[in-house]
Design a protein that fits this description.
GO molecular function, one term: sucrose synthase activity
Structural class: alpha/beta
Radius of gyration: 28 Å
CATH superfamily of the largest domain: Glycogen Phosphorylase B
Strand content: 15-25%
InterPro entries: Sucrose_synth_GT-B1, Sucrose_synthase_pln/cyn, SUS_EPBD, SUS_N
Protein name: sucrose synthase
Number of helices: 18
Mean pLDDT: 88
Strand order of the largest sheet: 10-11-9-8-14-15-16
Low-confidence stretches: none
CATH class of the largest domain: Alpha Beta
Number of domains: 3
Number of strands: 16
Helix content: 40-55%
Distance between the termini: 18 Å
Pfam families: GT-B_Sucrose_synth, SUS_EPBD, SUS_N
Function: Sucrose-cleaving enzyme that provides UDP-glucose and fructose for various metabolic pathways.
CATH architecture of the largest domain: 3-Layer(aba) Sandwich
Shape: globular
Largest sheet: 7 strands, mixed
Length: 482
C-alpha cells in the first residue's frame, strides 16, 4: 500500500497534497470512509485533476479505507484491501514522506488522539491474540466463515499423510461413553487394522439385512464384533456410518470426516448463558435490557431440542437431552417469573430456564441492575452457576453457549472450569453501537464501563472454541463496510 501512495505522489503530487491538506485542516480526529470520499469530491481543483486522482492508485486506497487518523501534519489510514487483511500507512503531509505501519504502531498513533505522545519505555502492552494461536490458521479470505471446513481439511490432510494420526480417532471411539454406557466401540477393537477388519465383517453382515431393520434386532451380534450403540437406529444408517469410517481409514477427505464426526453422539447436555435483563416467558418485554434477545434464545432452544432429539433417535440411543438457559434470578421481579429458580420452557420437554442470583459480600442482590453494571458480580456468579448446573445435570454439560458480552465471559469461566467446549454468539456487542468508543472509551466509562466490557469481549472471544455469527458480513464486512 505504501507503494500505491508513493506512486500517486509521484504522478499527482499537487492533487494529493491538496486532498491530504483538507484532512489535516480539520484538525486531529478520526475520519470515517464517507468523510474520506467526501473530501475527494469537494476538492477545489479542475475536473480533469479530480478525475486523475480518482482514477489513480490512491483512490483504491480510499475505497478500501476503514478510517483515517489525523494528527497534523500526519494522516494515517487503515485499509482493508480484502476481507481478513489489513494494512496501515502514514503520510507526513509537510514532508510528503510515506511509511508503512505495523498494527501496534498504528494503534499507538491512534491512541495519541486521546493520550498524546508518550515516550515512556515502561508501558505494559498485552497482545491478546487468540489463545489457541498454535491451531491451524487460515491465510485465505475464502476460508472466513468456513472454520469447520478449514479444520477438517487440515485434519484429513494430516490423516492422509500420516496414518498414525488415525490413532487418536480410534482412542476416542474406544473410550467414548455417556452416563457409563459405552458408545461406538468396545475393548474388542484394539488397533486401527483390527477396526478396519471388524468394519468389513460387520458391513458384510448388515448389508444382508433389510434397510429398515432396527438396531435392536442385530445389537448382540454387532456388539460381539466390537461395536456399541451410537452408529444408528436402523441397518441402513449403521451401514452408512460404517462406510464413512471405512472411507476415512482408507483415504480421509474433509467432507467425509465432517459428516462422520457430525453423526458421532457427543452432545446431550447444553448450557446457554444470558445473565442480564429480565429473562422470562411472560410480562418481560419492554422491561430494561429485555427485548429481542429473549425471543431469539427461546426460539433457539426449541429448535435445538428438536434437532437433538432427532439426532439421538437416529443414532440409535434412548437418552433424553437436557438444555439449561442460565440467567439471573431477580428476587424483586416486578410481577414476572424471574424470581423462580427453575422454569420449563413452553413448547419443550427437556429445556428449562435456570436462574442464579447475583451475590456479593453483602448477600443476594435483589433488584434488577443494568447490563452495564453487572461486571463486579460475574466471577462469583460463574462459581454459583457451576454448582447449580452440575446439580441439574448430575455432571458437566457437553457444550456451553455464550450470548452477549456478559454471557460470553461467564461461558468462558465455566468452560475453563469444567473443561468443555465453548461457543460464543457474536451479537449485540456494544463497541459497534457507539462510534469510536474503542478510542474514546474513557468518556463513556463511568456510565457504560467499557473498560470492563471490551476486556471481557477480548477474553471471551479469544478463549472460545468457535464463534457463531448470523452472516458473513458480521465477520468480514462487505466491499463498503467494516
Amino acid at each position: 500500500m505504501r507503494d500505491r501512495v508513493q506512486d500517486t505522489l509521484s504522478a499527482h503530487r499537487n492533487e494529493l497534497v491538496s486532498l491530504l491538506s483538507r484532512y489535516v485542516d480539520q484538525g486531529k480526529g478520526i475520519l470515517h470512509p464517507n468523510n474520506l470520499i467526501d473530501e475527494l469530491d469537494n476538492m477545489v481543483c479542475d475536473d480533469e485533476a479530480r478525475i486523475r486522482l480518482r482514477d489513480g492508485p490512491f483512490s483504491e486506497v480510499l475505497k478500501a479505507a476503514q478510517e483515517a487518523i489525523v494528527l497534523p501534519p500526519f494522516v494515517a489510514v487503515a485499509v482493508r484491501p480484502r476481507p481478513g487483511v489489513w494494512e496501515y500507512v502514514r503520510v507526513d503531509v509537510s514532508q510528503l514522506s510515506v511509511e508503512e505501519l505495523t498494527v501496534s504502531e498504528y494503534l499507538r498513533f491512534k491512541e495519541e488522539l486521546v493520550d498524546g505522545p508518550s515516550n515512556d519505555p515502561y508501558v505494559l502492552e498485552l497482545d491478546f491474540e487468540p489463545f489457541n494461536a498454535n491451531c491451524p490458521r487460515s491465510t485465505r479470505s475464502s476460508s472466513i466463515g468456513n472454520g469447520v471446513q478449514f479444520l477438517n481439511r487440515q485434519l484429513s490432510s494430516n490423516m492422509f499423510r500420516n496414518k498414525d494420526s488415525l490413532e487418536p480417532l480410534l482412542d476416542f471411539l474406544r473410550v467414548h461413553k455417556y452416563k457409563g454406557q459405552a458408545l461406538m466401540l468396545n475393548d474388542r477393537i484394539k488397533s486401527v487394522s483390527r477396526l478396519q477388519s471388524a468394519l468389513l465383517k460387520a458391513e458384510e453382515h448388515i448389508s444382508k439385512l433389510p434397510p429398515e431393520t432396527l438396531y435392536t434386532e442385530f445389537e448382540y451380534t454387532f456388539q460381539g464384533m466390537g461395536f456399541e450403540r451410537g452408529w444408528g437406529d436402523t441397518a441402513a444408517r449403521v451401514l452408512e456410518m460404517m462406510h464413512l469410517l471405512l472411507d476415512i481409514l482408507q483415504a480421509p477427505d474433509p467432507s467425509t470426516l465432517e459428516t462422520f464426526l457430525g453423526r458421532v453422539p457427543m452432545v446431550f447436555n447444553v448450557v446457554i448463558l444470558s445473565p442480564h435483563g429480565y429473562f422470562g416467558q411472560a410480562n418481560v418485554l419492554g422491561l430494561p435490557d429485555t427485548g429481542g434477545q429473549i425471543v431469539y434464545i427461546l426460539d433457539q432452544v426449541r429448535a435445538l431440542e428438536n434437532e437433538m432429539l432427532l439426532r439421538i433417535q437416529q443414532q440409535g440411543l434412548d437418552f433424553k437431552p437436557k438444555i439449561l438457559i442460565v440467567t439471573r434470578l431477580i428476587p424483586d421481579s416486578k410481577g414476572t417469573s424471574c424470581n423462580q429458580r427453575l422454569e420449563r420452557v413452553s413448547g419443550t420437554e427437556h429445556t428449562n430456564i435456570l436462574r442464579v442470583p447475583f451475590r456479593s459480600e453483602h448477600g443476594i442482590l435483589r433488584k434488577w441492575i443494568s447490563r452495564f453494571d453487572v461486571w463486579p458480580y460475574l466471577e462469583k456468579y460463574a462459581e454459583d452457576a457451576a454448582s447449580e448446573i452440575v446439580a441439574e445435570f448430575q455432571g458437566f454439560p457437553d457444550f456451553i453457549i455464550g450470548n452477549y458480552s456478559d454471557g460470553n465471559l461467564v461461558a468462558s469461566l465455566l468452560a475453563y472450569k469444567m473443561g468443555v467446549t465453548q461457543c460464543n454468539i457474536a451479537h449485540a456487542l456494544e463497541k459497534t453501537k457507539y462510534p469510536d468508543s474503542d478510542i474514546y472509551w474513557k468518556k463513556f466509562d463511568e456510565k457504560y464501563h467499557f473498560s470492563c466490557q471490551f476486556t471481557a469481549d477480548v477474553l471471551a472471544m479469544n478463549n472460545a472454541d468457535f464463534i457463531i455469527t448470523s452472516t458473513y458480513q458480521e465477520i468480514a464486512g462487505t466491499d463498503a463496510d467494516v
